[in-house]
Amino acid sequence: MSRSIKKGPFVQDALMTKVAAMNGKNEKRVIKTWARSSTVIPDFVGHTFAVHNGNKFIPVYVTENMVGHKLGEFSPTRLFRGHTGAGKPADKKAGGVPTTPAGGGGKGGK
């Protein structure tokens, strides 16, 4: 469920004050933040935020396309190393169903 329209988007107060002060001075510095849940608003466009991903700060330059999204969406927390290639087996250990029955196989039923 999305946030109520009458409440408006959540933006951390510290981010709002820093961006407002920088807009007043025509200054562009990197703003460090842990507030991944803050919504990107039009005042943020053109600024760079260093968003924490749990390990380090990822620089995020805000463009007009990002307005309405959360800052955390642009700072991935998990490392994706890719799927296995076409020539590599998915699992190296031999297992599964044996091709011959356990009784020795063959014809004749003793």
How is this structure best summarized?
The protein is of the alpha+beta class and 110 residues long. It has one helix and three strands, in the order αβββ. A hairpin with a 4-residue loop joins strand 2 and strand 3.
Overview of the structural elements:
- By secondary structure, this protein is α+β, with helices and mostly antiparallel strands.
- Helices cover 12% and strands 13% of the residues.
- It contains one helix and three strands; from the N terminus they run αβββ.
- It has a three-stranded mixed beta sheet, with helices on one face.
- The chain is elongated.
- The mean pLDDT is 87.
Number of helices: 1
Name of the CATH superfamily of the domain at 29-74: Ribosomal protein S19/S15
CATH level 1 class label of the domain at 29-74: Alpha Beta
Q: What sequence of helices (H) and strands (E) makes up the elements? A: HEEE
| Sequence of strands across the biggest β-sheet | 1-2-3
The appropriate CATH architecture of the domain at 29-74 is 2-Layer Sandwich
Rg from Cα: 27 Å
* CATH topology label of the domain at 29-74: 30s Ribosomal Protein S19, Chain A
Q: Profile the largest sheet.
A: 3 strands, mixed
**Residues in β-strands, percent:** 5-15%
Classify the helix fraction into a percent range. 10-25%
Number of strands: 3
Structural class: alpha+beta
User: First CA to last CA: what distance?
Assistant: 66 Å
Q: In terms of per-residue confidence, which ranges show pLDDT below 50 for 5 or more consecutive residues?
A: none
* pLDDT averaged over residues: 87
Coarse shape: elongated
